[in-house]
Specification:
Helix 1 links the parallel strand 1 and strand 2. Strands 2-1-3-7-8-12 form a 6-stranded mixed β-sheet, with helices on both faces. A 3-stranded antiparallel β-sheet has the order 4-5-6. The protein is elongated, with a radius of gyration of 44 Å. Helices cover about 60% and strands about 10% of the residues. It contains 16 helices and 13 strands.
Length: about 500
Amino acid sequence: MSKFALLVGVSEYEYESNPLPSALKDIEVMKQVLENPYIGGFTEVEQLLNPDLLEMQKAIEALFSKRRRDDLVLLYFSGRAVKDRNDKLFLATRVTSQEMLKSTSVPASFVQDLMVDSLSKKQVIILDCSYSGAFAKGLDVSKSGWVVLTSCTSSQNSLEKPELKLSIYTNYLVEGLETGAADRDNNSEISIDELHEYARKKVQQNSPIMKPQIFAGEEGYKILLARASIDDLRIRYRKEVEYYASSGNISSVSRRLLEVLRDSLEILPEEAAEIEAEVLKPYQNYIEKLHQYKRKLFEKAQSSYHLDEKLIKELDDFQQAWGLRDDDVEPIKEQVKLHIKEQYEEKLRQYEQIFIETTQRNYPHTDEDKNGLLFIRQVWKLRDEDVSRIEARINEEFDQQYQEKIEQYKQMYIEVVKLEQPLSEMTRNRLNGFQRVLGLRNEDVTSIEAELTAQIAEESNTEQSITKSITYDFRGASVGNLAHIVQSNQRNNQIQ
């Protein structure tokens, strides 16, 4: 049996401003592990970097043509992929254009036709690109000897591993092959389904939002892809660490079991620690991403008292880029929402206190007071309806108090005017002092005094008129008709 591989990497796109440098690095590391005689042992591994459409089609067709039945054929693609409106997948080339998709990119159906026509019964397709899960659409699962591994589903993006400049999926495929950790049954061989399970698990530890998939015809799952050394004691220890650390940490009981295994394998403590750190790193990286997401969210919360649409969109993009699960992100959002609510309510309480103090100092408010309060509302981004509710309640209380003070001043003024008219300078000073104690505005006091002065003058004139009329009518009147005369004069005064 011979093993042939074509590794296609597209990092540059004429119609796309953002390059994809990880694609070339993916090709490099994949080539090394497949060519390694102790791991992949492939007969021929061809690289194709940044091809145009014709180059890519010819190379893929050459891979599947002229193969014997027992030859293993592997097509690996790292780059961008695009879907059309019918959800059909196209592998992007260097010249791919979204507007001319069918004539500038390789459709999944092109590769599928070559798979059907090829004599090889061991066909492996590995796609590390966005929407890669859509490739399997239309494949005949009843036919044997083929398997497709995809980095994500038909609706997901494939992510990179920035610290390694690799895609996340390819990184763990290579790791599973290089370390032999993908060989779960310890038979020194790595089948395609073992490799998929190892990579899937690792990807979801690091970026749970990504969901690598496997599709296969009959017997496709058990295609043997590489070898693993069962004599390597470090690999044996690593496999056990992988098992015990499946939840992201090593329990005290598991720790004791690993220590026993470590001693029996005669692995040094520092070597064991290095292996454990490497195994646990994806979990730790994911936890660190959650911490960064939380920090970013709290930073945004410092300048806003609600999660507006723009902020939510920014956070969703951040979540997608880092591959964070909704189940992990939602508790953080709820925590931040509670924090924002508490912050906002505290600002409302502070505003209420400031409004009360301002109102106590000047009521009604001066223009300067109004502008100052408006500035605070704007800086703190307080909602109008919340501010209006607070101000209405406080104003109602102060309105009632102010009216009571006005009534007190009215009573004082009436008493003073009845005793002294016009008012002396000393009396005027006493009234001014009383006004200041009550905190009444000059314009309100002026209006009150004018109104009361006119009212008192009118009452005085009325009393004089009545007195004159009664005096005139009493002349020569007997005591018996006194009541009649008084009533008659009162009616006349009312008519007047």
